[in-house]
Design brief:
elongated; 7-stranded antiparallel β-sheet; about 600 residues; 6-stranded antiparallel beta barrel; about 35% helix; alpha+beta
């Protein structure tokens, strides 16, 4: 019995030891891993929490708004959306797009190539009668109009056709003299010659004179026959009226050849020469294109309209072209550059105030790039700088790509680098006299701008005269600017003067607004560089102005009042920048700072 109890006690002790060892090993193995797992889970949660905190919320309409938390846009009140970070860490000027997105946006590209530089000059004109083909049908003797065979203007007549029958007492007397002279022709032959000459002086033909001599009868009525074939454009006589010798009975025009007289502006004159080919059409036959060459350029410019006449001659055998029809012409003028130039489509270029930008196709997307443009060539521009031959630019879908760039906080028309190249800070050089004159210029400018807001062409044209008067007071030769400031202002002054002159010569609001856009570009650049001359100015921008190319203007009020559309889209646009007058500094202080 004792042995049995000892065996049980020993066996129980062994099992207890094994159990304790197992528990110890389990804790060492599983306990450490559990702690490791908990630590790993905590790390994952921390990363997820960090990612959640890193989410940036933006506005689809105002991508410059970026907040760490969701909510409403402080500008427009729209719900904020998470910022798309799929574009990766590429350059801020590059927007990445996959092939499906490009296809969906219907983006098309055009390769930049060299081509012959030709400028499209658009001219307006009308069909005119060739003045050399107008004939006056006159009467050569006194008489009474007994019968008219042509009774209205526009009637076609043929050469030799009888236009009128006339009773002429003097011709009756002259015939009697001839018949009496014939009776004494053997004795006095000179009397016969004198009588015949008298009748021929009144434009009777030799045949008619011989008929009188042979018949011996006096002709009471005489016919007026057409000298040319054409259309009666003026009738100056009626039946029963009395006409003096030399009176113009009719004016007849030959319309088988006509003139097309176009109005040309001064700025286009360097590109227009005799012999230039011109193609034109008229609204009556929009699908038909007429071709001709310039035969005459008026040597004198109209003092009021600031245009001159350019003329071409066109055969009009089928009489499709009627006098006074309006015509639209295009001259393709060579630019006379050495060699061929790089050409970029107009549809590829976006205007952002003083800059011109395009989107260039690169690996994985499109890069926004500044370009410098030359002359306009109709549907394209001459390219001076910014692109290389063979590069592809977006020619369709440009604004779609720009919108995608805005949503991804990339450089775009509305979200570009703060420091724009090419605008030097020269405010320290601006003198008090310059600032006072600049203030006068801005006051007259605001009057002109407000007239455009109200779409009052006559008022804006009148206000433009005041702007020109203020600008003339700022001729570089009248100012005391020095060095870089003088050079900068001289360049801008010339641009302001040219574009303001374009506003002045047009009483059409659409044409005024076209010139108003580049005028603002030069003025805003001047203010950014030389100062405002006023306490505060707002630079405002409408992306839909000038056929969706965008345009800027200035205002002293933050509220948008669009001068490019007026009542049509009065509040279209936004404030893009604010100019505040800086206190004048000495040049030395400026360098120290």
């Amino acid at each position: 019995m004792k042995n049995i109890l000892e065996y049980i006690s020993t066996n129980w002790q062994q099992k207890l030891i094994v159990l304790l060892v197992g528990l110890l090993l389990g804790w060492l193995i599983f306990g450490g891993k559990t702690e490791s797992n908990h630590s790993h889970e905590r790390h994952q949660h921390a990363e997820e929490s960090s990612d959640a905190e890193a989410t940036v919320w933006t506005c689809s309409m105002h991508p410059q708004i970026q907040q760490p938390n969701e909510g409403d846009c402080p500008i427009c009140g729209m719900d904020l959306i998470p910022l798309d970070k799929s574009a990766g860490n590429s350059s801020p000027a590059v927007i990445e797009m996959n092939p499906d997105a490009i296809k969906l946006a219907n983006v098309q590209t055009t390769r930049v190539e060299r081509g012959q530089s030709s400028k499209e000059i658009h001219l307006n004109g009308k069909v005119s009668i060739d003045e050399r083909r107008i004939s006056s049908q006159a009467i050569h003797f006194d008489g009474r109009i007994e019968k008219l065979f042509v009774n209205f203007e526009g009637e076609k007549v043929r050469k030799g056709q009888t236009l009128a029958k006339v009773y002429a007492p003097k011709l009756i007397s002259a015939q009697e003299e001839l018949i009496q002279a014939l009776k004494t022709k053997d004795t006095y032959p000179e009397l016969v010659k004198a009588a015949e000459q008298k009748l021929k002086f009144w434009k009777l033909t030799t045949k008619e004179v011989e008929q009188i001599k042979s018949s011996g009868k006096i002709q009471e009525y005489f016919e007026i026959k057409a000298d040319v074939t054409g259309y009666v454009i003026k009738r100056n006589v009626a039946e029963g009226s009395y006409a003096k010798a030399g009176s113009k009975l009719f004016e007849i025009a030959d319309l088988q050849k006509v003139w097309i007289v176009f109005d040309a502006y001064e700025k286009d004159l360097p590109f227009i020469q005799k012999g230039n080919e011109i193609e034109f059409n008229v609204s009556a036959f929009p699908s038909k294109t007429f071709n001709s060459t310039i035969t005459y350029i008026d040597p004198v410019i109209d003092a009021k309209k600031r245009i001159l006449k350019v003329r071409t001659e066109v055969n009009n055998l089928d009489l499709l072209l009627k006098p006074e029809m309006f015509a639209n012409g295009i001259i393709y003028a060579d630019m006379k550059h050495k060699g061929s130039e790089l050409i970029v489509p107009k549809s590829a270029v976006m205007w952002t105030g003083k800059r011109s930008v395009v989107y260039v196709k690169v690996d994985g997307g499109f890069e926004m790039r500044d370009v410098e443009l030359g002359e306009s060539l109709g549907e394209s521009y001459i390219l001076k700088e910014g692109l290389e031959e063979g590069e592809e630019v977006v020619s369709k879908g440009t604004f779609t790509i720009d919108a995608a760039a805005q949503l991804n906080n990339k450089y775009s028309m509305m979200n570009r680098p703060e420091s724009e190249p090419g605008t030097p800070n020269l405010q320290q050089y601006a003198t008090e006299t310059f600032n006072l004159k600049l203030k006068d210029l801005l006051q007259s400018y605001l009057t002109m701008k407000n007239a455009m807001v109200e779409t009052k062409a006559k008022e804006s044209n009148k206000a433009a005269k005041a702007v020109m008067k203020a600008l003339m007071q700022m001729k570089p030769s009248n100012l005391d600017l020095k060095g870089k400031a003088m050079k900068f202002w001289t360049e801008k002054y010339e641009l302001l003067h040219v574009h303001l002159a374009d506003i002045l010569k047009n009483e059409n609001m659409e044409e005024q607004r076209k010139a108003f856009k580049p005028f603002n570009v030069a003025l805003i650049a001047s203010l950014k560089s030389l100062g405002t001359g006023a306490e505060k100015l707002y630079i405002q921008y409408c992306p839909m102005a000038d056929n969706d190319t965008g345009a800027y203007w200035l205002s002293i009020e933050e509220e948008i009042m669009n001068p490019y559309f007026g009542d049509m889209m009065l509040n279209c646009g936004e404030v893009t920048d604010t100019l505040i007058k800086e206190e004048p500094k000495s040049i030395h202080q400026g360098h120290q700072h």
